[in-house]
Specification:
Blueprint: H1 14-40, H2 47-58, H3 79-85, H4 93-118, H5 127-137, H6 139-146, H7 151-166, H8 170-183, H9 192-196, H10 202-217, H11 224-235, H12 246-253, H13 257-281, H14 287-305, H15 318-322, H16 334-344, H17 355-396
Length: about 400
């Protein structure tokens, strides 16, 4: 067989080939999700209530006077969040929304960079375009841009906290968490991690930043107490629409209350065991794996058992998914990724031939995705616990 001419058949390693393939696809995917789908919008618009609230705040008008009996998107941010959102109301609504989408895309790209850096990969490696491709292929990222929600900034806060906490920059680690708390406290459960790790300084920024922003926003608001008296009670209710939590999903499908409580308690107990095992056996061996996996357990369980769990919260599970590249990861099995498909797929299951079945699949996919993922994490760790017990019993004999 004749020797190939290297000029006609240049060699290229697999990672280089993957980069060549993924970069143009990822860039076009980002542009399509933001410029086309994001600007087009959809039936749900999370930005308009935020813009209107910011405008009322600047005009010294009541912010928390909405009718919460409707199913329209409501403004639910505290006064500190209103203060942070207020600059967008200085420009017209359409351009303000476009600006918010653009900044959200930048936040998502920064998040991908932080995630790659967190797991020790170079930005020049294939990991960066691979993560970007995965990000923008998911429902959670697509609908965050389409509905124009704050979630991308929450993801940046989560990853910045992890990176700084692992590098023992504890005072700074609490700041990104605190900024997200000032708008929406979805990451509050992550405070258990520095508590278990005895990184007390994290709480200075995590608690101090929202307190300072609240102190600044409170006297500037016309009706701050309405947030406490009207909005907070609404937030504690498990609504039966746009809600993939166990309580919300159960209410929509008419599930008995006792079964909803049993399921919620079961997932909490699974989470307690998973967190205990991770803390005991992983924290000192691989702190990154411990933190990323524990954060996934805390967040995934909170999405299921608390009153409100919306599908696009799933992006906060990206650090858990990224652990697949590390030995000992709970994500190295196919059932885990079946759960990921459920809670992150952009596929729709509405069917014209089997309407009721398709609707049930569509409305349940996020709930069963989160559920399966948390069950898999629990089962993997339980089997490892049983293996350790068996080994100890064998040694003792």
């Amino acid at each position: 067989m004749p020797v190939a001419d290297r000029r006609l058949f240049p060699t290229m390693d697999v990672s280089r080939i993957a980069s060549v393939v993924l970069w143009p696809i990822s860039v076009l995917l980002i542009l399509q999700r933001s410029i086309i789908l994001g600007v087009n919008g959809d039936r749900t618009d999370d930005f308009t209530p935020v813009y209107n609230a910011a405008l009322r705040f600047l005009r010294d008008q009541p912010v928390y006077a909405e009718n919460y009996n409707t199913v329209d998107p409501h403004y639910l941010y505290p006064p500190s969040g209103t203060l942070l959102m207020a600059p967008f109301a200085y420009i017209d609504p359409e351009r303000a929304r476009w600006l918010f989408i653009g900044v959200s895309v930048v936040a998502l790209i920064v998040s991908a960079w932080l995630l790659v850096k967190l797991f020790g990969f170079a930005v020049s490696s294939v990991a960066f375009p691979a993560v970007l491709f995965f990000f923008f292929s998911t429902e959670t990222v697509a609908h965050t841009l389409i509905f124009t929600n704050f979630n991308s900034f929450v993801l940046v806060g989560e990853l910045a906290f992890m990176l700084l906490a692992l590098r023992r920059r504890d005072l700074w680690a609490g700041v990104p968490l605190g900024i997200t708390f000032a708008v929406k406290p979805v990451l509050a459960v992550l405070l258990l991690l520095p508590l278990l790790n005895r990184q007390w300084k994290v709480f200075v920024g995590a608690v101090g930043v929202p307190l300072v922003l609240t102190a600044l926003a409170w006297p500037l608001s016309v009706d701050p107490m309405s947030f406490v008296k009207r909005t907070v009670p609404y937030l504690t209710e498990a609504r039966d629409y746009y809600n993939s939590s166990i309580a919300g999903n159960g209410a929509y499908f008419g599930v008995q209350s006792w079964l909803i409580y049993v399921l919620r308690i079961a997932f909490v107990l699974m989470a307690v065991f998973s967190l205990w095992f991770l803390h005991k056996h992983y924290r000192k061996v691989d702190e990154l794996l411990w933190m990323a996996t524990s954060s996934g357990v805390l967040l995934g369980t909170s999405f299921l058992v608390l009153g409100l769990g919306q599908g696009y919260y799933s992006m906060l599970l990206f650090p858990l998914l990224m652990t697949v590249v590390r030995p000992g990861s709970v994500m190295r099995n196919w059932p885990a990724w079946l759960g990921v498909y459920g809670c992150m797929t952009f596929d729709a299951f509405y069917s014209t031939r089997w309407a009721a079945f398709g609707r049930a699949l569509e409305y349940n996919k996020v709930t069963w995705g989160w559920s399966l993922l948390m069950i898999v994490v629990f089962c993997v760790l339980l089997f490892r616990y049983l293996d350790l017990r068996r080994e100890r019993a064998t040694v003792e004999v």
